[in-house]
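User: I'm new to structure prediction. If I give you an amino acid sequence, what do you actually give back? Let's try with this one:
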Amino acid sequence: MPSQAASSAILERDGRYLLVLRRNPPAAAMYAFPGGRAELGETPAETALREFAEETGIVARSPRLYATYELTSSTTGCHYFLSVFRVQADPGAVAVAADDAADLGWFTAEEVATLPAPESVRDCIRRLEADRGRKDSAPFHCAGMS
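Assistant: Good question. You get back a string of structure tokens that encode the predicted 3D arrangement of the chain. For your 146 residues, that looks like this:
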């Protein structure tokens, strides 16, 4: 089965990460970075920015590829190629849960460790915390995660 293209976006403010509580599969009832499936003709970066705006109401900018994952959903069996971007947004922009997001919140890495979240989100946050303060971190790829 071919992989479906998907993208997500990481926005960090003051050591907290914006996560949405997913309403629908493949990560229903889990906290994740805002994101979703690509629409026809979109680049991965365009998908990340569109999904971020749809799910949070925040217009993000300056997407920088941070990671890619090959994922198989344990609930749907679908295969995804996920591109994860770091984004920027106006500091005063207020996030409001919409679209596929049942709720959202700003969480520290320690708080995320206690939430139901996909392993790809946990992996990204571990790497982000390890990279804190570094400007030279190159994108990485992780295959075979679910």
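You can read the tokens as a compact description of the fold. Here is one thing that stands out. Residues 54 and 123 are 24 Å apart (CA to CA).
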